[in-house]
């Protein structure tokens, strides 16, 4: 994704991280491991990998801005959205 953007635009000026996975709503005690891992992979790992790649290109060009957008679920979680609420503070810096 970043290599293609660099080829097309020659640099990256802005990154907006706004990825999310709609969770299958369930109580924590009923949540399958697969649901938890999928959410963590997108919300935290996806944010990290995009930040890292964009930052490398931005540092090389001497300019860049990054905006991370997270769900309100990270602040005001709901009992059946544990998989969405837990990783959000990790992506809301």
Describe, in plain words, how this protein is organized in 3D:
The chain is mostly helical. Helices cover 44% and strands 9% of the residues. The chain is built from three helices and two strands; from the N terminus they run H-E-H-E-H. The chain starts with a helix and ends in an 8-residue tail after the last helix.
Give the SSE map.
Elements: H1 2-9, E1 14-17, H2 33-61, E2 65-68, H3 82-85
Parallel strand pairs: 1-2
Short summary:
The chain has 93 residues and is mainly alpha-helical.
Distance, first to last CA = 23 Å
Instruction: Give me the strand/helix succession.
Output: HEHEH
Radius of gyration of CA atoms, rounded to a whole number: 16 Å
Count the DSSP helices: 3
Can you give keywords for this protein?
93 residues; mainly alpha; 9% strand; 3 helices
């Amino acid at each position: 994704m970043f290599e293609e953007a660099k080829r097309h635009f020659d640099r990256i000026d802005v990154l907006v991280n706004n990825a999310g996975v709609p969770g299958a709503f369930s109580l924590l005690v009923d949540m399958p491991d697969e649901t938890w891992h999928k959410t963590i992979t997108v919300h935290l790992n996806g944010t990290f990998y995009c930040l890292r790649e964009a930052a490398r290109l931005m540092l090389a060009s001497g300019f860049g801005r990054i905006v991370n957008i997270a769900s309100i679920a990270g602040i005001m979680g709901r009992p059946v959205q544990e998989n969405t609420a837990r990783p959000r503070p990790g992506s809301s810096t």
